[in-house]
Amino acid sequence: MEYFDLEDPFTSLKEHQSDTISALFSSESDHMPSQNYLQCLKTSDFYVSFRQEAISLILQAQYSCNLDPYTPYLAVNYMDRFISRQDIPQGNPWVLRLLVIACISLAAKMKEIHFSSSNFQREEGFIFDAPAIQRMELLILDALNWRMRSVTPFSFICFFMSLFELKDPPLTQALKDRASNIIFQAHGEINLLEFKPSILAASALLLASHELFPLQFPSVETSILSCEYVNKESLLKCFNATQDMVVNQISESIVDTVSSSSTRTPLSVLDCHCTKAESESTTSTMGATAMAEKREIKRRKLNDFCSESTRVQISQIQPFG
Question: Pfam families this protein is in (predicted)?
């Protein structure tokens, strides 16, 4: 497979040619889960649990196999698109594991990086032979109509940043890095799956610019909102949802930090008393700060799945080749 860059899926974005940009926006919906996927996730505990466990396993592969973050991101994209078009049999836990292995394998091939499925499987305590993995890869390729050069939010970052000129290279890189980080964070959020990749990219850039240089935020906002490809109503909704996600994750991080610090083993009775007092004070202060920040950020806000595409069936695959 030819090397694939998530930021440049059509390999010609560097010049931002108008026809290329137009093609990028017109094709992004082809690389999203089916329309009823979100509704299915909202009504089916099985699919919510299936997706959460699959993402957890993909992230575990990222750390244990030392993968770059774009590879698991691409694997999750393949997985979402596949399960939105394919019946997933319940009561067969091996299906999830085989699907995860196949999605990571395909993503690694697209990124031209090494991924040892056998090593990862041994660490996780399950083994599928090569023919079984290859058959699952073919099912995924068929369900996705061989559209493996996924158009993701990363595909639009450089385009949107070209709309507003930042003259400071370090600041430009910081904005791009922060927006990318927000996009990575958003991948596990079910309520953000409804938005097109371009809208999520624009929201991430707006939020990042507001965090890093709030004085320039109005000009960034104007530049993005003036883009002919951007639906303002959808952007507003996505921006608010993304902002809520970031606030909630910050609050959870603070609580986790406080909880871990409060479990420190005291060295004496006096230390125990001081530790408790410090913990209560810190918890109260940090909790109040988090809530205040959350309220302040909110004030600053920008004012049939199961029946689709049954050409292939997982029942054709057996757990062991």
Answer: Cyclin_C, Cyclin_N
Q: Assess whether 206 and 75 both reside in one domain.
A: no
DSSP state of 28: G
The residue behind tokens 């909790």 is: 287
Tell me if 262 sits within 8 A of 275, measured CB to CB: yes
pLDDT tier at 92 (50, 70, 90 boundaries)? confident
Backbone angles phi, psi at 13, to 5 degrees: -80, -15
Task: Give me the DSSP letters along 68-125.
Answer: -THHHHHHHHHHHHHHTTS---TT-HHHHHHHHHHHHHHHHHHHT----HHHHHHHHT
8 Å CB contact between 54 and 81: no
The count of other CB atoms within 10 Å of the CB of residue 13 is: 20
- Counting DSSP H helices and E strands in the chain, the numbers are 13, 0
Distance CA 243, CA 209 (A): 12
- How far is the CA of 309 from the CAs of 36, 51, 81, 139, 171, in angstroms? 13, 19, 11, 12, 45
Only one residue has tokens 């699952």, namely 136
Statement to judge: residues 58 and 193 lie in one domain = no
Share of residues in the chain with pLDDT > 90 (%) = 49
The CATH number that applies at residue 81 is 1.10.472.10
Whole-angstrom Cα distance, residue 9 to residue 261?
44
- In this predicted structure, the answer to whether residue 238 has a pLDDT above a threshold of 70 is yes
Considering the domain architecture, whether residues 165 and 270 belong to the same structural domain is answered as yes
Which residue is listed with tokens 């202060």? 285
25-41 tens-digit pLDDT = 999 999 999 888 888 89
The DSSP-derived string for 189-241 is: -GGGTTS-HHHHHHHHHHHHHHHH-GGGHHHHHHHHHT-TT--HHHHHHHHHH
- pTM of the prediction? 0.77
Q: Which amino acid makes up residue 316? A: Q
